[in-house]
Amino acid sequence: MSETYHLENMSNSDSLQQALKQYFGYESFRAGQREIIDASMAGRDTLAIMPTGGGKSICFQLPALLKTGVTIVVSPLIALMQDQVTALKENGIGATFLNSTLSGRETNQRSQAILNGAIKLVYVAPERLFAEQFLEFLNIIKNKMGIAGFAIDEAHCVSEWGHDFRPEYRQLSRIRQIYPDVPMIGLTATATERVREDISQQLQLQQPYIHVASFNRSNLYYEVVPKQGNEQTYVNLLRQIKRFQGSGIVYCLSRKRVDEIASRLREDGIEAIPYHAGLGAKEREENQTRWIRDDVQVMVATVAFGMGINKPDVRFVIHYDLPKNIEGYYQESGRAGRDGEDSHCTLFLGYQDLETIKYLIAQKVDPHTNEPLEAEQRIAQQQLRQVVDYAEGVACRRTILLRYFGEGFQGDCANCDNCLTPKPMEDWTVETQKFLSCVARTKERFGGGHVIDVLRGSRKEKVLQHGHENLSTYGIGKDHSLDEWRQLSRSLVHQGLLTQTTDGYGILKLNERSWEVMRNQRNVLLPIERDAEPATVKDRDAAKERPVDMDILFERLRLLRKNLADEQEVPPYVIFSNATLNQMAEQQPTDRKEFAKLSGVGAKKLEQYADDFIALILEHHLKYPPAEPSESNSFQVKSESISSKSKLSKASTQRETLAMYENGLDIDEISRDRNLKSATIWTHLVQLVESGYAINCDRLVSPERQTVIYEALEAIGGDSLRNLFDHLREEYTYDEIKIIRAIWQNEKDPL
After folding, report:
1. Strands (DSSP E) along 340-489, which ranges?
2. Which of 359, 381, 415 is the last residue of a domain?
3. Is the Cα dihedral 748, 579, 338, 401 positive or negative?
């Protein structure tokens, strides 16, 4: 019987915490995980929307260890199944997969292991789930040990509104019909409100607990770089890749482009391999394995690559060609930095890509009648326009991305090209009033293109057909170019001053903020881009670095990890993540007790790997003896051990802000003295609180206002800043809400 089972007799609270550390090596839950797990343990249907790297898998894997019976995990890809099962086994968890890669003998052996009680999680594809023979096997499991639950991974595949709809997922509604009393959890990284509703309906979830985490990946740097001809664009790509250490992905639209780029990169000394549907299954699998195991640095691929890939240490994702939609871009770029370390997302904007994608959209036809699927084509065209709006946008890129998913973001994110190299701001309130007035006078029935045509006095047939040449707003915008009006239109949507429908038509609708502008209650500032130089790439390595001997140790630890992984034929990150290696290099534990305290070190990994890594650390100390911290420099030594190399400069600038605040300076004074925006200073203080620093916030938010925010948090929870902002009737700033929420969350779930 699996060693997992002794946990089932503990109290729920104890078993959750102990199992988390014992099997996954973590001392505390990430935001939202505990609530999802509690709902699952209570037998509720659940829908979990959490960004890539947010810890979705633990939300169904941990309950599976604690509940009686076997958990069935439905997964769309063989590679995803194999990857997760390998990681689970490495953590000492009984897991297996049943798919077409297995021989009959292997399938029988695994089936027997399940019936013998050695397995807690079984991964299957949707096609296998409803095969008659497998349904009979499921009934045997149910009668012998019970089915603890069904977990539907990559649940957006069930929705035709999702970016990766898979028809075979539609049959998953049969689970509820066959097993009406077995709880189900759907999990995905990307889902708009419409997709979430469709998932719940298609899976027939019964009064589900729905958790929508923040879509903000604060460790990802976003930038858009214009294409400058084929040769110069490739040179820019090569320059980008050479800047980064670690693994990366380059996405291309076509198989031909994938092969060309991979070949050229190899010629220029970059270890790169291709991945696309035109390669044989064996070659695709071999290439994926080589990349996952760090035998090569760069995977050049079409979007056929990546779903379910759990590699956490991807340092960069580059879209050489324009993505087809925002959801796909978010998911693909989100494959960078799953370990929480700083990572880079670059999109090359070339308008010739538009024609390629439009051609692909035109190929959406009914396979039976060969007639165009007009509704699907219309939706795809609007999704393409949204990608172009993002790429051309001059507002904070996080604001644009998060608004797409219904999440607000205020201020300067300090981690995208538009925020780090902002354009000059101009007051466009009058122009906005003209634009909004034209939207109103055209009865809120048209998209931005038609509104601009009316403003600029166009004689197009559509304008004349509706009699819009007779409107008072006709021709009042001739003093601005078409591009300027388009930029304004995009910016108004990004800023929430206009609402755009998502039905494929992109109709502009006025909202309450629109009327505030019309009534002169709100001004509109617009960053104007006129022949501006492209934003320079952010250099993350220019700041202060940790000691050289620590870097040397990290590289030796990484080599040891690679050797151990090769011996066991598993990806290196399955042994330990880069984050754990960074902690190891900084804290340099020399006994098992200290080694066990590292994040990501569970019971089995402690037993299996501690001695090898401790021996290497002790050997390192012979050449680089660890310094004994004196009283005068103990704070500095402690500070340097807080964060990894890529986060050191960030932690340093945060502490500088904290020191000034604790010396009595207010936000404006710190902002002026440090030559930073006040929004950045607020962000520093919020992040410090989130990291566990005790900060007296009475000078930031009066005790009376704190009390009101606390009451709102207790009433509706802290998952959505936008909901809190609305609940507080917009009388409290996002900065006030964020810092009190951080304190509240620390009090609720102390580390």
Report:
1. 343-349, 425-427
2. 415
3. positive
